[in-house]
Amino acid sequence: MMCDIAYASENAKFGQPEILIGTIPGAGGTQRIIRCAGKSKAMEICLTGNQFSAQEAEKMGLVSKVVSPDQLMPETLKVAEKIASNSKIIVAMAKESVNRGMSCPCR
Fold this sequence. Notes:
Blueprint: E1 7-9, E2 13-14, H1 29-37, H2 39-48, E3 52-53, H3 54-59, E4 65-67, H4 72-84, H5 88-103
Parallel strand pairs: 1-4
Antiparallel strand pairs: 2-3
Helix pairs in contact: 1-2
């Protein structure tokens, strides 16, 4: 959830299993999951420790794209090359704007 762009293999599994070992998600996991999944789904994920599929992760906005396992690296490299072909300064400004918008109370 700390990635700018996340692609997943179609057989990937996701979850917040920390509750199963008597702790809570660290590194902002509880705050990040609510931003993409919404409160109810975030609560379900964090309080049960259940895993969910890549397709469910895409549906809730946790990942941008789900691809076959053999296409994961080619797809990620393709998007990385496209981003790298753009102005470094403008890419940095766009990233900063999106990141600031995530914490803006004006949603």
